[in-house]
Amino acid sequence: MSYTLQQAVNPMCVMERQWGKSPMVMFTDSAECIGVLARDSGKDQIIGILLSMYDDDGEELFSSDDVGTVVDILAANGYDASSVILVGAISSWTKMLEPALYALMSALKPVDTQELPDGTYGAKIDSNGNIQVLR
Known about the structure:
A hairpin with a 6-residue loop joins strand 4 and strand 5 (46-51). This protein has helices at residues 67-76, 90-96, 98-108; strands at 6-7, 18-22, 24-30, 34-39, 46-51, 85-88, 112-115, 119-125, 131-134. The longest helix has 11 residues, at 98-108. The chain has 135 residues and is α+β, with helices and mostly antiparallel strands. The chain has one domain (6-114). Helix 1 packs parallel to helix 3 and helix 2 crosses helix 3.
């Protein structure tokens, strides 16, 4: 099975290899994942994508080839390219998936990266229309 991303049924429960769009997005308890967060161009919703290192079968690694899928999902949902934040196990990805992580960062040009431990986190739009990371 290849690395695929699917829309979450509930944006308050975005699991690994899923994405959601809502004024608030929460990722499930994740291990060694990276969350991609972006505000939509209307500045009232978050697009959140939870990337895991491996596919469903634990065989296919996230790779530079998968970055286009992430960008396509963001673009299809009208993201504001100046609002992208990456959160999660960035240091683990640097060690294990360095080419893929750098391809992702090169494509998205995040305004912020936040190293977060394994756990549950997400984001919401604050009263100023900015992304507020929730831990």
